Amino acid sequence: MEKRKIIQIFILLFVSVACGSLEKMNSGKKGDDIFIDAEFNIENARQQEANGWAKMAEIIVRINPPSFPDNIVELTEFGGKGDGKTDNLPFFEKAIISLAEKGGGKLVVSPGTYWVDGPIVMKSNIHIEIQQNAIIRFSSNPASYTPLVKQRWEGTVCYNYSPLINGHNLTNIALTGEGTIDGAGGDWSRSWKEKQEPDKAILRKMGHDRIPDEQRVFGNGFLDLDGDGKDDGYGDGEPHYLRPSLIQFYECENILLEGLTITGSPFWTVHPVFCKNVIGRNLTITSDGSPNDDGFDPESCEDVLIEGCIINTRDDAISVKAGRDQDAWNRPPSRNIIVRNNTLISGANAFCIGSEMSGGVENVFVENNTIVKGGNALKFKSNLDRGGFIRSVFIRNINVSSCKQSLVDFTTDYHGYRGGNYPVDFRDIYISGVTCENVGRMAFEIVGVESKPIQRVYLNNIQVQKADRTSNIKYAKDILFHEVTVDGDLVVAEAFPL
């Protein structure tokens, strides 16, 4: 062990935290029932960690798959053709409506390639089973994804082209089977990314100014909510370039996604928003190289289980989100999220929270995951526009092969900053039982802001075989290392008060 290295880390922590200033915890706020101004040491941290994992056991019993009536129909009964050429959208519509009129049931998609020119719109109590060797392949014609629907785009609510599979205000919906959903997003999302910046800037200003949702009209610039055939008054009739998600359920409850291969998303792949009781199980989510192809992004959702999935994406594999900036401050948080037994491969972040997290994220449990590759393995990202909080996060038993940047990274200056001064409240993060073979840059990057230091991070039983640098810790209080080694050297840091 290198005594010099230990001393350097010790001094770095002391200097860094001394530069910050601590705001006391607001006792009694939602989520503070476990952590209230307790002395932070190894014994206490272990107890708080144990209390947190006990809470996960209470959450998991509430997360259950939906149930459906026994009605079963086949897409082919309604004219469906798996020839790769016929537009099957009208057949999906007929089948879903027919089942819904019977109170719900299962729609079976048998082997074949079913081309669909437009969005599949789910209804309550509908279960679509895509069988092995069945492929649903969507068209690459954005104009087909109308009428516009309400959704969240990078954390801000708006009306935009429909997600390829969507549903609003539904209960009991499922997509299962051993087949494939192919969004064919690469055919158009690369060119749209280059064109989307003006629309993105306009939408973010609308969110900042809290413009009414119905006035945020993108897509083809035409929104007719009252059904009179005329624009409601806020569309400009011009084309816009905000890419839709592949699967987005909005304000839905009791959702199951299981067994499928999902690929080719034009934007975020699986994106439940304002949903409750969501299960993503044994999915294979892959990239076709399109930008912003996040794998599974629960946003402002409650009681979510993501397990047994293989996610290989160019962008974040799994990202827990809760909206962007002022637009999210009065909307629901994300809470009670369980991520376990997954294999994650990412060109960006394997598991992350943010950067859209302004409604708040709490009670997140991540265990028994394998990270094959990521820019960062475990990432917490925000900037000074966001506000909100990330707290009560529990991570254990993670095996990391390689990450290009950092093993654990807290970023409070994420790109896209618009000049605000609303620091995020980061606190109570517990990470134990992590092994990592190689870190390209920095094992631990924990950088808060002077007015709102990152508080109470417990790093326990972590072994990093190789890293270019050990740590950069600044504007942080109570960063506690225990049995952490980097390059064979023990990392020693006390829980310094400010």
Could you explain how this protein is built, in words?
This protein has helices at residues 3-18, 42-60, 89-101, 189-195, 197-209, and strands spanning 72-74, 83-87, 105-109, 112-116, 120-121, 126-130, 134-138, 149-153, 156-160, 165-168, 171-177, 180-182, 247-250, 253-258, 261-263, 276-281, 284-286, 302-307, 310-313, 318-320, 334-340, 343-346, 349-353, 361-381, 389-411, 425-447, 454-464, 467-474, 476-486, 489-490. 53% of the residues are buried. The strands form three sheets. The chain has a 25-stranded mixed sheet that branches. It has a three-stranded parallel sheet with strand order 5-10-13. It has a two-stranded antiparallel ribbon with strand order 8-9. Residues 1-37 have low confidence and may be disordered. By secondary structure, it is mainly β. The chain contains five helices and 30 strands. It has one domain: Pectate Lyase C-like (3 Solenoid), CATH 2.160.20.10. The longest helix is centred in the first third of the chain and has 19 residues, at 42-60.
